[in-house]
What we know:
Layout: E1 13-14, H1 16-23, H2 27-36, E2 42-43, E3 49-52, H3 53-71
Antiparallel strand pairs: 1-3, 2-3
Helix pairs in contact: 1-2
Amino acid sequence: MISDPALEGKGPLLTPGQAASLFGVDRRTVTRWADRGDLTIIRTIAGQRRFRLSEVQRVVEDATRLRVHESS
């Protein structure tokens, strides 16, 4: 996880690869979701994409709940 001093106190940030691991998808899929606006992108000073761990966890939990609900 990456922490940017300018974003201090807002939680850890993930690279696209780290976020993809949590979702269980390819890194390019996470990038597409971000480009579509499905995930919030945070840009580093160098212009690299980062994602808030808290948002990724929330989306994973929501998707898990939806799958459990649909199968009941």
